[in-house]
Amino acid sequence: MLETFGPFSESLIAVYTKQILLGLQYLHKKRIVHRDIKGGNVLVNADGIIKLADFGASTFMQDPTQTNGFKSIRGSIFWMAPEVIKGDGYGRRADIWSIGCTVLEMITARRLSPLPASDGKISALRVFKTIFPKIA
Length: 136
Fold this sequence. Notes:
This protein has helices at 2-5, 10-29, 82-85, 92-108, 120-131, and strands at 32-33, 42-44, 50-52, 59-60.
């Protein structure tokens, strides 16, 4: 949609973001962490209703607030939370980060970073360092 229509209006972003957050809230209450939220995994029907899609990377967590045991990198590089890229693990917070990246995508009609993801984790670390420069 972004390629066709460009950046979304503020009101449309608000409507879509609320629906995405409600869907994520439902998943998290069921102790499911999606692990790959991005624009391409957000479906919109003709009535403007949002559905989250592609649960291939999702997982059930006994305690979704914890990241222990889920240190594998899953999902799409440009939407990954810093803790996932650093290898510290994955939990609910990482899904919320991905929604933030998705909102930025709706605002700008671009990915958060222009760096290619072809070289996997190394590229992910480059993205991380580019977005979050070291603070003295």
